[in-house]
Amino acid sequence: MIDYNKRSASQYGVQFGNKFENRIFKRMREDSTNFISQCIWAGYGGADGYSLSRPEDITALRNRVANMYRQTPVWYGLAFRSLEEFAAPPFIYAEQLWNYAINNNSSGPRAVGFNDGRHWTDLDVDVEQGDVIQFFREDTQTYDTSVLIVSDTRQNIVDFMGNIFVAQHSPDFSYRPLINAFRTSCEIETCKLRVLRFVPAFF
User: Beta partners for 194?
Assistant: First the structure.
């Protein structure tokens, strides 16, 4: 089994959150969950042994992606220069990532889910670094935005939102106050959110 290293996931999110592309993975048109899946990949050791800033290491990491390192036939992203248009649905869509991770009994990421379908104030677990938050959109009636907690805190989201920071794409941020992500994703008064917490898995 491979542990999920929440610090490695966070480091990837901070390093690349505010960059349009990182030359490791191909950016998708709406890149929210695609980017968060990359952070999860790093959390499971996808980038271990390499720097996230040296050009020669970026090339090596891109080759890892092309060779499906720490990915699966179901859950995979595209290498930066890939000619394919779309990565696997569980890698790029919030709903599919949730369903895949919480129901996965085979190789690939595994997670415990909290607060699905409920108002954000109903969340009864503290959130922590490496957790993924997904926001629900009323107009489409789906969860469609994913962000990664990067602050090194374990906090109650209701009482301490001001101490929680996230990385995300679409829009692109490395260390964004969670309250700001709320305001651009949904109405705080009615917002539903859920949390994915990743656990050891095998690849």
Answer: 134
Q: Which residue, among 132, 37, 138, 143, has the nearest Cα to 94 in the 3D structure?
A: 143
What does each C-alpha distance from 63 to 43, 57, 67, 83, 141 come to in angstroms?
A: 18, 10, 6, 14, 37
Whether 113 and 123 have beta carbons less than 8 Å apart is answered as no
This prediction has a pTM of 0.97
Q: What distance in Å separates the CA atoms of residue 101 and residue 89, rounded to the nearest whole number?
A: 12
- Beta bridge partners, 198, equal 111
Q: How many CB atoms are closer than 10 A to CB 152?
A: 12
Q: Check residue 71 and give its pLDDT.
A: 98
Which residues make Cβ contacts (< 8 Å) with residue 169, sequence separation at least 6? 17, 27, 31, 32, 34, 35, 36
Q: Which residue has the tokens 């959150």?
A: 17
pLDDT averaged over the chain? 96
Strands (E), 138-179: 142-149, 154-155, 165-168, 173-177
Distance, CA of 39 to chain centre = 5
Mean pLDDT, rounded, for 6-15: 98
> CA 50, CA 57: separation in Å to the nearest integer?
6
